[in-house]
Amino acid sequence: MTAVRKLWPLLVGTHRYDKSISLLRLPAGETVEAPILAYLIETTNGRILYDVGCDHAKVADPALRAKHYDPAHFPFGPPDITDEQRIEARLARLGLTPKDIDVAFLGHLHFDHAGGVGSFGCEVQVQRAELDAALSGADGGVFMDELAGHERWTVKDGDYSLVDGVDALVTPGHTAGHMSMRIVLPRGAPVLLCGDAADLTENLDAEIAPGLLWQGAPGADGRPTIGADVAEATALASIRRLKTLAAEEGAELWPNHDMGFYRRLECRCPFPDHHA
């Protein structure tokens, strides 16, 4: 049996950047528009939100935008978030508010996945390796102010079950403690939310590591302790883990930043009334 009732993918922004960010060793020069997604899982035990999107204020406020999206570090600029894409608006279309979310599960702590956590007063779950790496300051995709209140978060180690039919899966590589999620639906195939273990369908089909990889926990000198070859192998092992599980269970693999895949999913189950 599964406790899952419904699953909604929520488009909470878009970001344009070079495709090489998603595919390791791809030559630069092709710009893609990537969806920024959160996933709402309604269960008999409450509502879980996998990822929470960006901090809208850092995008909307010119001073904050200039501070956080300095072109020297973000050459492709900040994400785009329309009013209807704000996570509060997405939830409102489902008759919900942030107070109706019971658990915010952060697949990883990059700004486009964890930035909106301040909008939620619920339990926040994160992997220990992910939080430790973020707090070290060594992961440039993390905005440190978005870790405020982390002392109250629920910190986990390894795979675990949130409720019957919702399982957290360790898939490091893109980040130190990246987590994917297995969701068993009340009907149809299970879903594997890849998170940024696989931005694109190409990451899965061709087994290509993400273009941005965690290089390992910093040593005493603050520099990475493992090389790029180990980082790539770690990311590929995560992709293969997801593919193997999908084959064993007949599950669907949902890449996280693939606009073509998201549009096909949107057509299959139009927002806001869709459920897988």
What does it look like?
- The protein has 276 residues and is of the alpha/beta class.
- The chain has one domain: Ribonuclease Z/Hydroxyacylglutathione hydrolase-like (Metallo-beta-lactamase, Chain A, 4-Layer Sandwich), CATH 3.60.15.10.
- It is built from eight helices and eleven strands.
- It has helices at residues 56-60, 62-68, 87-92, 111-114, 128-136, 201-205, 228-249, 259-268; strands spanning 4-18, 31-43, 46-50, 103-105, 123-127, 154-156, 160-163, 166-170, 179-183, 191-195, 252-255.
- The strands form two sheets. It has a six-stranded mixed sheet. A five-stranded mixed sheet has the order 7-8-9-10-11.
- It is globular, with a radius of gyration of 17 Å.
Question: Which sequence of strands runs across the widest sheet?
Answer: 1-2-3-4-5-6
CATH superfamily: Ribonuclease Z/Hydroxyacylglutathione hydrolase-like
What CATH first level would be assigned? Alpha Beta
Average pLDDT, rounded to a whole number, is: 93
Q: What name does the CATH topology carry?
A: Metallo-beta-lactamase, Chain A
Uncertain runs = 216-222, 271-276
Major sheet: 6 strands, mixed
Order of helices and strands: EEEHHHEHEHEEEEEHHEH
Pfam families: Lactamase_B
Family: Belongs to the metallo-beta-lactamase superfamily.
Organism: Derxia gummosa DSM 723
Cofactor: Zn(2+)
Briefly characterize the structure:
This protein has 276 residues and is an alpha/beta fold.
